[in-house]
Amino acid sequence: MPDPHARVREAAAVRGLEIEVRERPAAKSLAEAAALLEIPPSSIVKTLVVKRSDGSYLFALVPGGRAISWPKLRAVVGVNRLRLPEAELAFEATGYERGTITPIGSAGEWPVFADETIVGQRVAMGAGAHGFSLFVDADQLIRAYDATVADITVPEG
Questions:
Q1: Could you read off the pLDDT of 45-82 as tens digits, one per residue?
Q2: Which residues pair with 127 in a beta bridge?
Q3: Of 8, 19, 138, 146, whose Cβ has the fewest other Cβ atoms within 10 Å?
Q4: In CATH, what number does 22-155 get?
Q5: Domain boundary assignment for the chain
Q6: How far apart are CA 138 and CA 119, in angstroms?
């Protein structure tokens, strides 16, 4: 079987990103995942694929314990409509299944919008395959993808 992380590793190398891919057991909650990885919940970053009304996509990097603020994200992107696409469309846009999505090695070179709260952190995110987490310095990731850093989230709950 080919290395499920080859695409992620190659894309990281091209951009000069240092990453660590670590196997991890499945978790039933954010708190459990954070405990398994021995990091704070806010250091687990979900990469959400967001569809624009023109059919293009963007990535939103959302730290654990927070959710996208649609009004804030729309304002930063400068559009009136954004939505989460169906799982099949997210896969088409990235080549990754939900729960494994990362901008690193994505099939589409979509713009990245990072919540300002991840700045300065080492974060864990999807690694392109289930059962793994990718660790990366958020500031390096932001630079490598020329990400827009803004207040795009609100506390969950």
A1: 999 999 999 999 999 999 999 999 999 999 999 999 99
A2: none
A3: 146
A4: 3.90.960.10
A5: 22-155
A6: 6
